[in-house]
What we know:
Chain A is built from nine helices and no strands. The first copy, chain A, is an all-alpha fold and about 190 residues long. In chain A, helix 1 (about 1-15) crosses helix 2, helix 5 crosses helix 8 and helix 5 crosses helix 9.
Amino acid sequence: MEAIFGASARILEQGGRAAFNTNRIAEVAGVSIGTLYGYFPNKEAILMAMARAELDAARDRVAAALLDASSGVHPARRAVRAVIETYATGGKVRRILMETLFSHGRSEELARPVGEIADVLVAQAGNVLPTGPERLGPVGLYVLTRAIDSVARAASYEGMSFAQSQAFEDELTRLIFVYLGWPEDKDNAPRE
Amino acid sequence: MEAIFGASARILEQGGRAAFNTNRIAEVAGVSIGTLYGYFPNKEAILMAMARAELDAARDRVAAALLDASSGVHPARRAVRAVIETYATGGKVRRILMETLFSHGRSEELARPVGEIADVLVAQAGNVLPTGPERLGPVGLYVLTRAIDSVARAASYEGMSFAQSQAFEDELTRLIFVYLGWPEDKDNAPRE
Amino acid sequence: MEAIFGASARILEQGGRAAFNTNRIAEVAGVSIGTLYGYFPNKEAILMAMARAELDAARDRVAAALLDASSGVHPARRAVRAVIETYATGGKVRRILMETLFSHGRSEELARPVGEIADVLVAQAGNVLPTGPERLGPVGLYVLTRAIDSVARAASYEGMSFAQSQAFEDELTRLIFVYLGWPEDKDNAPRE
Amino acid sequence: MEAIFGASARILEQGGRAAFNTNRIAEVAGVSIGTLYGYFPNKEAILMAMARAELDAARDRVAAALLDASSGVHPARRAVRAVIETYATGGKVRRILMETLFSHGRSEELARPVGEIADVLVAQAGNVLPTGPERLGPVGLYVLTRAIDSVARAASYEGMSFAQSQAFEDELTRLIFVYLGWPEDKDNAPRE
DNA sequence: GATGAATGAGTATTCATTCAT
DNA sequence: CATGAATGAATACTCATTCAT
């Protein structure tokens, strides 16, 4: 039921996790609680489903950015930009969703999309990327992808003033370059 | 009250956050609930106080490792090692504590010790470090310190098999070297 | 829920306000607390609803007495008698209910039925009453009705020995007569 | 301890009965709770003592007004005026105090000062009053004194707009005159 | 007398979940 | 399939009172 997701998002946005209760969700969604339980086994399942959808969307956005050859911007920079933008949007709800996953010990879930991006990276090596992450072992790949993701997330959630600045994008991009042993990126492509 | 912290830790360890209720804490700590509320204004305050203590301890451990000149191991590697060890210990409780801070929007609190480590780094530049992070702007410093911390934490909480491996330590150390433009570290110092 | 009112009355009668707690009410009423809260938003609402019902019943009793032409007793005396009887019954519960209204600053609620009686009085002037309270301004009407009500209540709640005596009824009736400038009432109708 | 009464009054005035707790009283009064319990056996005792003091003060004020021959105003009117003024002052605290007495079934306490005024009335009959309440039996005296007191209180606590008007004073005064069979009072003495 | 740390019984209210209709 | 009335376990927190110092 799409109505349930919509209602949940609205409630989460307005009242935070505290206001998120099944009776309220059913009311806002315009269905009965019985119906709600027909679609989801329990409250957490709703949050989980939303979190996964959110994660998939983010992964798709980053993968698309990586593969999009239409601009002259370097793929690594495009990916960094997509990650930053992802954390800049979604606000409160996104954060609560991530939290839910984390507190349920589902960090692997959180990790999944990042890993999938890494897969795309490897598969496209030599194609979208000059010389690629295939030179990295699995540990190196983990460190690199997780670093970009984590640092972008931290900057956003810690409310750092530079979280969406060009300088921040530059630094994250540079991290990729130096870590992969690429020569410096010169295309300081300004964000539109 | 030390007893309260001890009891809280035990309860958190065994039953997780769900089992963490004031009546139980008082009981396990061997004090009355009234006394509990004499020391803490509410349940969350206990968690917050514990989290801060934990964070301070972690910061001290990493700072000490950074400044400890007794071994022949490179300071950057010593720091990486301390960070990894910190996340390897503390288990469930530590994790719940961090979560609490995060879900209360106190990400800055989480960030504080990392920032303090960065301060130590800068202060000691040219002393413990050959040429140092003073070359980095604030954004670069943020990216570097947060990356090390976040990636080490992610690997631990996601239960990655290599979370405490030599290879992982190497990669994180290498990240620092390449990011600071240092020549490769050769002292692949084995962990004790 | 009638069961809730019944249970509340019983509890109030036996244990007073101190024993009046939601868990107990639900238990005695044979419903779950959840159900209780389905019908009333909070504990006070139960008391309020009961108080209003009580007040309405009292008003109806007095109004009926006033309009009842079946006996040869003077309407004013009939009303006085009804008021006295009202305070003589209901005991502890009635008292606690009135208190609740009063302590919630809802004195107007307490006043309402008395005002409604005054309305009946004015409407029926020249009909049930020889020459009537229409000669009184609003202030005079207030003083008269409130005096009868308050004095009867005081005598009852202060446990005065004469609270239900003929002499007391006579005095209150006389108060009405002299206040309205009527000639003395001679029908000292004995209470059955 | 005067400090305790003062603190209690302040707390009652500001936060109502809900804010009235022993720890708070001790704090505001600047004494320890232990000391508080050295002077009063329990919380209610404080309220009771305050209520009695308030009642005595009111009684003294009315008695003084009754006996004060300095003005040309009729003693009955002077008493009515004093009663009205008493209820007009004291506000929230006075009300809570009266409530306490009432809800503890100490209505007799509430009645006491009124009875004492009646005693003064009888004792001074033929002196301050032309022909007096000695013609009334005890029931009549009760009805008269209680009526004046109750109606003045009701008007004040129900927030009637005329509670302090000349018209209200006139009506209550007239009640006394007609009840005692006195010829109409002509000295519509304006309130200062 | 004064102190104030400690006590702990007591309670209103919430909300996930069920299941008879 | 949908409904929503009913359930009741669970819990944070208050505050009058005590008593060792």
